[in-house]
Amino acid sequence: MDKRDYYEVLGVSRTAKDQEIKSAYRRLAMSYHPDKNPNDASAEEKFKEAAEAYSVLADQEQRQRYDRFGHAGVSSGAGPSWGAPGFGGIEDILGDLFGFGDVFGGGRGGTRRSSAQRGADLRYDLEITLEEAADGMTAQLRIPRLESCETCKGSGAAAGTEPETCSTCGGAGQMRYQQGFFSVARTCHACRGVGRIINSPCADCKGSGRLEREKQMEVKIPAGV
Which residue, of 47, 92, 113, 133, is most buried by count of CB atoms within 10 Å of its CB? Predict the structure, then answer.
């Protein structure tokens, strides 16, 4: 089954502002989250679809690639799924969207679950002539993808240096505040939830640890398609 357009999934226009995208995702996430719809496969699929769309459109770099290349431009980054980091229990959704985490402390919001993710399907639109469709052909495709930076081996740090543990959160990626009987966790503003600080970023990848490359693929199109 072909992937739906991410803008269509969230119900926003292609010129939608960041806040519109966030609000649309918040509405869908709260409506279809598996915690609110136990044993509802349809709701879970809609939640996954919305989460994947939001993960791309909320990131300016990925959104630009998606606008230019469609799903093929972001296929190397797997979309979030139920159980993936940042999309765990309902408290994780609230934390991401409203700025707080596990309000009771020690729950799933404080220690988010992680699991292996299936990569996104690759879609590439190719126009061919009627003759090529009848006779078959071999096409050379150039697929944009993100690859680990060879210079820093994916660490994001310049040669001879290493990322340092964030001194603000101690590497946890979150800051926990006590408010009466409640413990509120917020994403660390210093490291943005990563838990590490790169003081000397790699000159090639600018600290991201990844670079956009184009991979050339040869695809054989059988006669009579």
Answer: 47
Measure the CA–CA gap between 33 and 92, rounded to whole angstroms. 11
What's the token pair of residue 24? 């649309």
H helices of 3-40, where?
6-10, 18-32
And the tokens for 181?
A: 């009987």
Here the tokens at position 223 are 């006669």
For residue range 10-38, what is the model confidence (pLDDT) as tens digits? 999 999 999 999 999 989 988 888 878 88
Task: Give how far Cα 47 sits from Cα of 10, 13, 99, 135, 180, Å.
Answer: 11, 19, 20, 42, 34
* φ and ψ of 22, to 5 deg: -65, -45
Which residues does residue 185 pair with via DSSP β-bridges, in sequence order?
Answer: 176
Report the C-alpha gap between 139 and 209 in whole angstroms. Answer: 31
Token representation of residue 194: 């990563």
- Nearest Cα neighbor of 6 from 91, 92, 70 is 70
pLDDT digits (tens, 9 = 90+) for 96-139: 544 444 444 444 444 444 444 555 666 777 888 888 888 888 98
